[in-house]
């Protein structure tokens, strides 16, 4: 079994120092604005060069996070960032955006690409699709159980990485719009405001029913290693360096079966939310997984505890063995050669060795001086000496030789060959759409109005085939597919559907396998022209654009793939595998009519499907009187959730006549957009 990698978070240079000197095998950090922790210090300009050199010197891989959605107007800056990280010879890029993937693949084919957990991939079909697009590793969702991870590890198509410690979002990563809709700070763009940690209460629940405890799978790491996980990831790019040092140390202990209760307590003191949970991994869902950052959590870490873990990275770690060969002969200049792996260096001093007048240089003395590599990453492994009998060499000269060869070795190690890049054009002509079509999605066939007029209708997968045929409808696949790949594949086959809306690449892969026409959903997060081109190449016939785009951004998109936007409906804000409503009532008591109430008394409906729950916006997006302002799209999608059959019909009539909205509504993000 190959030793798994311990991958540590670095929000700044102090955290990088802590991670590397505590023994992390690899680190990940942002370089610029295109990463999911834009408020971290990150590594720009010279800081990236210093970080790259530091990692190379210590034999630590560094992965750059470019895992946010990118607008067309930002693609030029993204290209420059990619050039910069290729110049620094990064080991891998972590990506979410299909457009960023396409750009990186074209610019730097040799760059290792990792699929961010923001891509929401949790099926074998999805992993195989990632491999076909050039990914070599996928970061799995945090919501998977042990058996589901084990299934993905069997003859895995690419490397797999899992989060083993740190914050645990309520929503499946990449599927959350809560922060974006409530305050225009997008989690998909690296600026999540974490409103889920505020009060969202289910009836009879905890009062904070969107806030989970922190994740910890440290006690399960040996199991994960046996399953075949390649990389153990620690969350925490916004956390203190002492936390990073403690988490790395705990991971190392867990892999060597020496993880202690004291370490767990200290980790909880350094940062936790009401302690830790492994509920998803052990399939123990429920109220016990929920927690908040309480006063006791904030005050638990003492100065003594911080000092304990700061001491782990105060001094340099000797991690590189060096073999020295010293030659000192009377009448000749002394030479010292050093070999460190594939690196070689030699040094001489412009002094001649003389015959000793008093005490000659002995092999023992030479060994003693050459072993003094303190303060560097090097340590002497083998020392060979060729000394004339009775030769004299000042110890200061010997020390200078040692310093010189180690400096030369360090310079060689830190100077990596930049990865080759190709300058690709980023000039796009705006898409020209034809007559706009009407697409309707219903959560139940009972919502479909009589004699409804539509170009496409989407009903839930599992709707009887006869009903689909009667409504002339296709299906939409659930966003949550973890653990249900074979079941969904069979249901899709039985449905006889000609087309399917797919909100994740997992769903795209299953529809592609079934030879069903693919209409990309809004939660594929299509945000730029390159993403449209990539999705078309994957096999989609059409795409629903991201709900986070503005009307001006929509109009400016290029590419030929037909695209549309959702013009009506309660925007799905969260997809979660742990139903928040069940904190207070059973599924039978809920009856699909429950939800959450925030601290202002606003109600957010919750609907469940295929073992997942979706939290919807408190009010629908309405654009019936402003459809003309949405330009260059091929279809309008109407997404009906909690509406009755009569209410659906009324909405469609209102859009036909273009009347102004009545009652509570929102314009979504069509005008205010996201940061």
Task: Provide a descriptive summary of the structure in words.
With 675 residues, the chain is α/β, with parallel strands linked by helices. It folds into 4 domains: 5-182 and 208-313, Aldolase class I (TIM Barrel), CATH 3.20.20.70; 320-414, no CATH class; 437-567 and 624-657, TIM Barrel, CATH 3.20.20; 572-616, no CATH class. Helix content is 30%, strand content 21%. It is built from 21 helices and 30 strands. The strands form 5 sheets. It has an 8-stranded parallel beta barrel, surrounded by 5 helices. An 8-stranded parallel beta barrel has the order 18-19-20-21-22-23-24-30. Helix 19 (551-556) links the parallel strand 23 and strand 24. Helix 5 (124-132) crosses helix 17, helix 9 (241-255) runs antiparallel to helix 10 and helix 9 crosses helix 12 (303-310).
Topology:
Elements: E1 5-9, H1 13-21, E2 26-30, H2 46-57, E3 61-66, H3 75-87, E4 92-95, H4 98-107, E5 113-115, H5 124-132, E6 137-139, H6 146-153, E7 159-166, H7 178-183, E8 200-201, E9 214-216, H8 221-227, E10 231-234, H9 241-255, H10 261-270, E11 276-277, H11 295-299, H12 303-310, E12 320-328, E13 335-340, E14 343-348, E15 354-355, H13 363-370, E16 378-387, E17 391-392, H14 395-414, E18 437-442, E19 456-460, H15 465-471, E20 474-476, H16 485-495, E21 499-502, H17 505-513, E22 517-520, H18 529-538, E23 542-544, H19 551-556, E24 563-569, E25 572-576, H20 587-590, E26 595-598, E27 603-609, E28 612-616, E29 621-622, E30 635-640, H21 645-657
Parallel strand pairs: 1-2, 1-10, 2-3, 3-4, 4-5, 5-6, 6-7, 7-10, 9-11, 12-16, 18-19, 18-30, 19-20, 20-21, 21-22, 22-23, 23-24, 24-30
Antiparallel strand pairs: 7-9, 8-26, 12-13, 13-14, 15-17, 24-29, 25-28, 26-27, 27-28
Helix pairs in contact: 1-9, 3-4, 4-18, 5-17, 9-10, 9-12
